[in-house]
């Protein structure tokens, strides 16, 4: 039995993907416009937080129009405080990967092609109206002839073709950006390769099914956590069939209260299950947003969506206890050693910036909810450290940061007064009461004694002041700066020359685009491109004049 079919109009990015030249021009024009905005803000010194937020909102709107590839890029960048300003992170964090559903006729055709049978022979019932829709696909509800209720995840057509085209364009943009040393130092090629490898695996539903099966196996002995069963006979690279597990969204506080569900228990289950994923299994869901988790009437936590999983090196249980105690003691060195051991921090010659961030996190968020606005207090200082010695967080670490802040936000929506350490106590107790508990209790006792000793020592104000002074020296907060006017003048001239080179490239590209558009049905847009070429040529002329003036002034000094 089929419900009534629905259809929808193709989205803007779906219409443009059929014309590779038009797609490239669209992406390059948006990139050129954004670069122009940034240049304008820098030259006229309007780079305030309010203006950066305005630019971030504009960029987010363009990303939504560009479609799945760039939506995923923005979602990934929302964790990269080491790459983009805080205002962009805040805007990208609010990005919801929701787009209008595609035609149910198209969805049925994909299912029939992938599974090799008519829809009426595959399912007893099939709901043509999707339960949910996103940029990569949509989900339909159905019932098997054996009576089990399932959900079917169907992938949008043409995604692989679109990704390959967008990948090539992004690679070209990175090559252009690498002309500037300030961009080259971030090694964006590595970020690019990591991201697109992850994105290509996300559109392979066989891979997602294997992830779901592994995740389900990891939690088979945990009754408070539910993971849908994969129906492999109805699963291919473009179709994924899972057990239907309905529930209330994990952040729907009022609905959970009305159903009599214990909110504290939900918070504990969420925090402890994630600690198990991270520390014991070494295999965790990297995007645990409210749409990927739900609570059933029994108060059990349900996990959905296993397309983006990440792996880290798991820890021995005695090491976990040491790490928890290090957090309680605010022992930056111990926490840093743990992060390096797990491969979450890349060791470099100067660890001051990393140590400063860890110390800030321990001071601010050990006993309080995570608040991204608090990062504004150290963002400028940390940014200066990154400028002096470029540092890029490994992708696993950025996934963990995003997951923790997301889980913290969910917990706060359920109970604004919750405490992260209190919520994680059941997990710590489960470790100490497991096999080999004698050694673990000895480790716990030793670490607790060390914590008490340190607490008593901190009552000595002189020792405390000396420690603070030592920390400031170690963190590089006391510095000597020497200015060289001659070097500054030379660097300014080099900077202006590089800007002139970029504007020359943009002028040439705009002229090329204009002539290309004249030979297509979009010839009317050639006028805009010619106008941009004229504007960029004026900027080139301005750079040349500025260089001549500075050169004459330097000779007269």
UniProtKB/TrEMBL annotation:
All residue ranges annotated as the ABC1 atypical kinase-like domain in the record: 94-338
Task: Give the UniProt keywords, A-Z.
Answer: Membrane, Transmembrane, Transmembrane helix
Q: Where are the transmembrane segments?
A: 20-40, 494-519, 525-549
Q: Name one Pfam family in it.
A: ABC1
| Entry superkingdom | Bacteria
Parts forming coiled coils = none
Q: Which SUPFAM superfamilies match?
A: Protein kinase-like (PK-like)
Family assignment from sequence similarity: Belongs to the protein kinase superfamily. ADCK protein kinase family.
**Know the name of this protein?**
ABC1 atypical kinase-like domain-containing protein
């Amino acid at each position: 039995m089929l419900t009534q079919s629905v259809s929808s109009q193709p989205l803007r990015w779906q219409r443009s993907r059929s014309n590779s030249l038009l797609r490239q021009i669209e992406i390059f024009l948006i990139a050129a416009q954004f670069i122009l905005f940034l240049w304008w803000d820098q030259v006229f010194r309007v780079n305030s937080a309010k203006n950066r937020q305005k630019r971030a909102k504009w960029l987010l709107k363009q990303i939504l129009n560009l479609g799945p590839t760039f939506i995923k890029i923005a979602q990934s960048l929302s964790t990269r405080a080491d790459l983009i300003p805080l205002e962009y992170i805040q805007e990208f964090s609010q990005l919801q990967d929701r787009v209008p559903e595609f035609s149910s006729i198209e969805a049925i055709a994909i299912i029939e092609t992938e599974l090799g049978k008519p829809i009426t022979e595959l399912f007893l019932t099939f709901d043509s109206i999707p339960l949910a829709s996103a940029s990569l696909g949509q989900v339909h509800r159905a019932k098997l002839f054996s009576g089990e209720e399932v959900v079917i995840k169907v992938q949008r057509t043409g995604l692989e073709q679109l990704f390959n085209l967008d990948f090539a364009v992004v690679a070209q943009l990175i090559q252009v950006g690498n002309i500037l040393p300030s961009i080259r130092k971030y090694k964006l090629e590595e970020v690019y390769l990591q991201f697109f490898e992850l994105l290509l695996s996300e559109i392979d539903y066989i891979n997602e099914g294997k992830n779901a099966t592994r995740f389900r196996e990891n939690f088979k002995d945990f009754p408070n956590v539910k993971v849908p069963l994969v129906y492999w006979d109805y699963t291919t690279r473009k179709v994924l069939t899972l057990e239907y597990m309905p529930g209330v969204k994990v952040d729907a506080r009022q609905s959970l209260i009305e159903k009599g569900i214990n909110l504290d228990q939900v918070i504990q289950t969420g925090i402890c299950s994630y600690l198990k994923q991270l520390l014991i299994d070494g295999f965790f869901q990297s995007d645990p947003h409210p749409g990927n988790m739900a609570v059933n009437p029994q108060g059990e936590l349900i996990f959905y969506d296993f397309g983006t999983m990440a792996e880290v090196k798991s820890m021995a249980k005695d090491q976990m206890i040491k790490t928890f105690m290090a957090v309680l003691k605010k022992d930056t060195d111990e926490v840093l050693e743990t992060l390096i051991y797990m491969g979450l921090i890349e060791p470099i010659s100067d660890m001051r910036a990393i140590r400063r961030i860890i110390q800030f996190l321990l001071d601010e968020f050990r006993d309080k909810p995570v608040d991204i606005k608090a990062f504004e207090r150290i963002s400028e200082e940390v940014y200066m450290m990154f400028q002096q010695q470029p540092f890029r967080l490994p992708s696993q670490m950025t996934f963990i940061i995003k997951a923790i802040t997301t889980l913290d936000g969910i917990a706060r929506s359920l109970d604004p007064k919750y405490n992260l350490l209190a919520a994680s106590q059941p997990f710590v107790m489960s470790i100490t009461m497991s096999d080999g508990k004698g050694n673990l209790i000895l480790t716990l006792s030793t670490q607790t004694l060390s914590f008490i000793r340190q607490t008593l020592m901190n009552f000595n104000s002189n020792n405390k002041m000396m420690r603070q002074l030592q920390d400031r020296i170690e963190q590089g907060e006391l510095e000597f700066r020497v200015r060289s006017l001659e070097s500054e003048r030379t660097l300014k001239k080099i900077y202006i020359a590089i800007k002139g080179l970029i504007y020359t490239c943009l002028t040439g590209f705009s002229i090329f685009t204009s002539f290309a558009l004249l030979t297509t049905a979009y010839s009317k847009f050639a006028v805009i491109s010619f106008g941009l070429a004229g504007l960029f040529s004026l900027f080139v002329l301005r750079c040349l004049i500025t260089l001549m003036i500075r050169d004459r002034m330097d000779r007269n000094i």
